[in-house]
Write a structure and sequence with these properties.
Elements: H1 7-18, H2 23-32, H3 37-47, E1 67-69, E2 74-81, E3 86-90, H4 95-106, E4 110-111, E5 114-115, E6 122-123, E7 131-135, H5 141-154, E8 164-169, E9 175-178, H6 190-193, E10 199-206, E11 212-213, E12 216-218, E13 223-225, E14 232-236, E15 250-252, E16 255-257, E17 260-268
Antiparallel strand pairs: 1-2, 2-3, 3-14, 4-7, 5-6, 7-8, 8-17, 9-15, 10-14, 10-17, 11-16, 12-13, 12-15
Helix pairs in contact: 2-3
């Protein structure tokens, strides 16, 4: 992939690696200059100098500051985990935007499905007891604004995103521990990998306050994130060479009181072909 970069860019990357700059800061500068994030990250892997500490295979593309400024909004980073990369965010959506997503979704909910590991087809399972619906990318002006903001929040191109998924969990509803990436060795993953490549990150936005339960749980790192209207949890699990991180095993704990509404955005390695 570095052959697509000019010699000046390759020299610049090598110089900054030698200076001890972090991979995320190098990628951020290249993206600001208009270079594709996946290309930038792959170039760093290839051009890392001999003797320099090895690349963290799952080094983060996420922002390093305490606030994220988008074109129309300010989002606060309230908590981080470095390995795997997990961040809890406040004010991703306004209360009014949360209410509007619920209103638009309520009339078209269907029982949620998963990707069958053998066939690649979608099917209903007991481990996922929710109802949901999707909005196509840029489906209308409202969804387009949210897609653009989410792209800026997660620092990944909007065209690489799948359509926004809305889920509703009633009392007892849960989603047992699972991975969001497509397991590379599962035969059923291949049709999905052919359309935009592997998933690289997830943003789960909470659309309401849950009276009791409904946490997003990461059992391998002992982390539990409580739903709060307008807030979100972000996590990454795939690097530029396609390696995935099983430490991002996660699930949705049962709702014990009230109901739970979330919006989920998955980002792919490259442009998602169904857009």
């Amino acid at each position: 992939m570095t052959q697509q970069l000019s010699s000046e860019w390759r020299g610049w990357i090598s110089e900054n690696i030698a200076r001890g700059c972090t991979d995320s800061s190098i990628v951020a500068s290249m993206v600001h200059a208009g270079i594709d994030p996946a290309l930038a990250r792959a170039a760093i892997v290839t051009l890392r100098l001999p003797g320099h500490p090895p690349l963290d295979n799952l080094s983060s593309q996420f922002h390093t500051g305490n606030s994220i400024w988008t074109q129309d909004h300010q989002v606060q980073v309230v908590m981080r985990v470095s390995k795997p990369c997990v961040a809890v965010l406040n004010n991703v959506l306004t209360p009014e935007e949360c209410d509007e997503l619920i209103r638009l979704s309520r009339i078209k909910l269907k029982r949620s499905t998963i990707v069958d590991p053998l066939s690649g087809e979608y099917r209903v399972i007991e481990d996922r007891s929710s109802s949901g619906t999707f909005f196509a990318v840029n489906e209308n002006d409202f969804i387009s604004r949210l897609d653009r903001r989410i792209s800026e929040v997660v620092n990944w191109p909007a065209e690489n995103g799948e359509g926004l998924q809305i889920l509703n969990y009633q009392i007892g509803g849960e989603y047992k521990a699972h991975f969001d990436y497509f397991p590379p060795d599962d035969p059923g993953s291949q049709p999905h990998l052919n359309n935009g490549g592997q998933r690289v990150s997830t943003l789960v936005v909470y659309l309401n306050d849950v009276n009791d339960g409904g946490e997003t749980v990461f059992p391998r790192i002992n982390l539990s994130v409580c739903p709060r209207k307008g807030s979100a949890v972000y996590f990454e699990y795939c690097n530029a060479t396609g390696e995935v991180d099983p430490m991002t095993l996660h699930g949705g704990a049962p709702v014990r009181a009230g109901e739970k509404w979330i919006a989920t955005k998955w980002m792919r390695q490259s442009r998602y072909g169904s857009n």
